[in-house]
Amino acid sequence: MLNRLEMLRIFVAAAETGSFKQAAIQLGISPQAVTRAIQELERLQGEMLFHRNTRKIRITEFGEQLASRAGDSLRQVDTLFAPQGSRQSSEFEGVVHLTAPKALGRIGMLPVLADIAMQHPGLRIDLNLSDVPAHVIDERIDIGVRFGLLRDSRFVARKVAKYAFHVVGTPALIDRVGMPGQVRDLESLPTTIMHDVTTGRAWPWLFKGGQHFTPTRPAFTSNDSEAERDAVLSGLAFGQIAGFLADTHIAAGELVPVLQAFAPEPWDLCVYRPQRGPVPKRVRVVFDGLVKALADKA
């Protein structure tokens, strides 16, 4: 029985980390021991638990269902041996995999996730920050945060806030080059652009009524929104910056919004999770906490 329990514990660690190597490090055993345990469990179950290739592993649908049941069972077993005061928190033990845009994740989510994790010892956060949308289903992400509404029936999505996008510059920049009165005036002014890393092309600036503007000779180019914000704060150029990055600097007088009559509609911010069976308590507590916190911050 002990061996089978340990076999399940190894399997759940591999499922949660998405890596035999990381599971071995987490459990303090060899990668070979992880491989042998998974192979033996597959033999006992009569089903493949992971798809494997030379670069990565990916859990099968059967493996995902087994991992959910096994994880719940292991937590119940661990609860039997836990001190009375720690039993409630053990219900939330395990890894929650999240994905979010880089700047929003660092500024808006990290403090919230840290607070939730401290309230629930044993809860482990795995946050993937990228401006490239993750393949949530394929990569086994538990929770995602993104701009724009999700209409995919495979997801449970909650719209939590709206964020404006501002064209801004510093007072010193405006004194030096003037303030644009029309969108076309930007063509003769120093500007920034962000690159879409999936296409290599520049993201266009968006304006009211579907109008677009793409700088042809930008003074600053980046694939990181915080770097773009910092370039604008230095007085180098005008930029179109998301509200969560610009609002505090606008309030402090460090940035001045321009072309406000042409501002685009604010973008929706959504928190979402895949619909794949029962939702573990650890995922639900993080999902609900993010929904509340991001709505409160808006």
UniProtKB/TrEMBL annotation:
Pfam families: HTH_1, LysR_substrate. Transmembrane segments: none annotated. Signal peptide: none annotated. Keywords: DNA-binding, Transcription, Transcription regulation. Residues 1-60 form the HTH lysR-type domain. CDD domains: PBP2_CrgA_like. Belongs to the LysR transcriptional regulatory family. PANTHER family: HTH-TYPE TRANSCRIPTIONAL ACTIVATOR TTDR-RELATED (PTHR30537:SF5), HTH-TYPE TRANSCRIPTIONAL REGULATOR (PTHR30537). This is HTH-type transcriptional regulator DmlR. It comes from Cupriavidus pampae.
